[in-house]
Design brief:
Helix content of chain B: 10-25%
Number of helices of chain B: 3
Radius of gyration of chain A: 23 Å
Distance between the termini of chain B: 40 Å
Number of strands of chain A: 6
Low-confidence stretches of chain A: 100-113, 128-133
Largest sheet of chain A: 5 strands, mixed, barrel
Number of strands of chain B: 6
CATH class of chain B: Mainly Beta
CATH topology of chain B: OB fold (Dihydrolipoamide Acetyltransferase, E2P)
Mean pLDDT of chain B: 86
Mean pLDDT of chain A: 79
Oligomer: heterodimer
Strand order of the largest sheet of chain B: 1-3-4-6-5
Structural class of chain A: mainly beta
Largest interface: A-B, 31 and 33 residues
Shape of chain B: globular
Structural class of chain B: alpha+beta
Radius of gyration of chain B: 19 Å
Strand content of chain A: 35-45%
Order of helices and strands of chain A: EEEEHEEH
């Protein structure tokens, strides 16, 4: 099993399509790691296909994001008497983080189901049950207003 | 991307290729180097060989308990080990996973096949269950 999660900044984006017309994006990106000099940035090749490639292409060069995928290794003979191990980040999911969206997503309250001002009993309405299912059974009771999203 | 806040996490499960090499430094720190073979997530007969390095307590645990053929699971950070080639003078590098966590999953080889068969029979009902 191999999984990799990184925060990256795209340095270059090349686009192409495979034989079935699926979009492919590849290039180089920056990632960070800890070294004796503190946190440093390094460059790694990447490639992505399908929705991840579309997301990367839409975000553009110099965009930051969280990527989920795996690391692929390729051993190449340099022709100088030694072999070099090349590492490529294969991106299966790209979540852009530099896109600043100032409009908060609001949930529309259906007017056909007016909410009572005060709860009549302790039983949860059907909608609340569905919300619990949506949050994977986790009831969030903490105050998240101070978290700087 | 800020310099300080970042995510760099690699998770691997595979078999160790060689017995770990342990080095003790004068400063008292310990470093263990090992390689791990990973089955790639695509059709290929050749495994992916990752170089790993562990420091401190993890290095000592790896040196003591991990042997060639052991199945381990690790989480770590991808770094590039860089050095100057003495012959060509070129700057070379190789990908390296610096371990943050090590899980010992399996021993190199289990000779007690009978015991394993009994265990398998007992687990058939759970193996055949739907998930």
């Amino acid at each position: 099993m191999i999984n990799a999660t990184f925060t990256i900044k795209t340095q270059s984006i090349n686009e192409t399509h495979d034989g079935q017309g699926v979009k492919i994006a590849y290039g180089e990106c920056k990632f960070s790691h800890y070294s004796k000099d503190g946190v440093v940035e390094d460059i790694i090749s990447y490639r992505a296909k399908g929705s991840a490639a579309v997301s990367i292409a839409e975000a553009g060069v110099n965009s930051c994001g969280v990527v989920i995928g795996y690391l692929d290794l390729e051993v190449k003979d340099t022709g100088k008497g030694y072999k070099s191990k090349l590492c490529t980040l294969v991106i299966r999911n790209f979540i852009p983080t530099t896109t600043v969206n100032t409009t908060l997503a609001t949930t529309a309250i259906p007017t056909t189901f007016p909410m009572p001002l005060e709860p009549q009993n302790i039983q949860q309405p059907v909608g609340a049950g569905a919300d619990v299912v949506h949050s994977n059974g986790y009831l969030n009771t903490t105050d998240s207003s101070n978290i700087p999203f | 991307m800020t310099q300080q806040a970042y995510v760099n996490q690699v998770q691997l499960v595979g078999r160790v290729g060689q017995n770990p090499e342990i080095r003790y430094f004068e400063s008292g720190t310990v470093k263990t180097a090992l390689t791990i073979a990973i089955k790639p997530p695509y059709k290929s007969d050749a495994p992916l060989w990752f170089d790993l390095e562990a420091w401190g307590n993890i290095a000592e645990v790896a040196a003591q308990y991990v042997k060639k053929g052991s199945t381990i699971g690790i989480t770590g950070e991808l770094v590039f080990d860089k050095w100057t080639d003495k012959n060509t003078g070129e700057l070379r590098n190789k990908p390296l996973i610096r371990l943050n966590n090590l899980e010992l999953i399996g021993s190199p080889r289990s000779n007690s096949s009978e015991e394993q068969t009994e265990t398998n029979n007992g687990q058939n009902h759970i193996v055949n269950a739907n998930f």
